[in-house]
């Protein structure tokens, strides 16, 4: 009995994060990098997942598109990816490079509350996304 209770306690302590599903990914119109503050009028990098396995993203300057595949053991793969090749101001290109690098490194994902937690191949957390929010333009 004691081993059972200890196992149940340890299982409950593993966190509320759960395997990501298509419903999780498509539950919001777009995802953006999680921040502690409300974004300014600048448009954040976003990614939108469709129920049919397609995705599109506005990572800063260009448009990113492709497919995603949810696999076993929290696997999340981005495949058949493409991107337009416009040149924009440095700050938008830097934002884009940072966001696309995050997506390129993502190999696993879990849902935890409102957050989509992204992990690299070693299952180390590399970023969090949250539902897109509007900034204030005052």
UniProtKB/TrEMBL annotation:
The keyword Nucleotidyltransferase does not apply. Residues 1-19 form the signal peptide. Gene3D superfamilies: 2.40.128.270. The keyword Signal applies. Residues 43-128 form the DUF306 domain. Keywords: Signal. It comes from the Bacteria. This is DUF306 domain-containing protein. The lineage of its organism: Bacteria, Pseudomonadati, Pseudomonadota, Betaproteobacteria, Burkholderiales.
């Amino acid at each position: 009995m004691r081993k059972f209770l200890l196992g149940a306690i340890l299982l409950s302590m593993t966190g509320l994060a759960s395997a990501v599903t298509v419903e999780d990914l498509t539950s919001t119109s777009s995802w953006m990098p999680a921040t502690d503050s409300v974004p300014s009028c600048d448009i954040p990098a976003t990614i939108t997942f469709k129920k049919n396995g397609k995705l599109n993203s506005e990572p800063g300057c260009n448009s990113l598109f492709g497919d995603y595949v949810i696999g076993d053991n929290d696997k999340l793969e981005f495949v058949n990816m493409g991107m337009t090749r416009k040149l924009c101001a440095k700050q938008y290109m830097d934002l884009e490079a940072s966001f696309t690098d995050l997506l390129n490194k993502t190999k696993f994902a879990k849902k935890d509350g409102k957050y989509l937690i992204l992990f690299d191949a070693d299952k180390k957390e590399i970023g969090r996304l949250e539902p897109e929010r509007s900034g204030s333009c005052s």
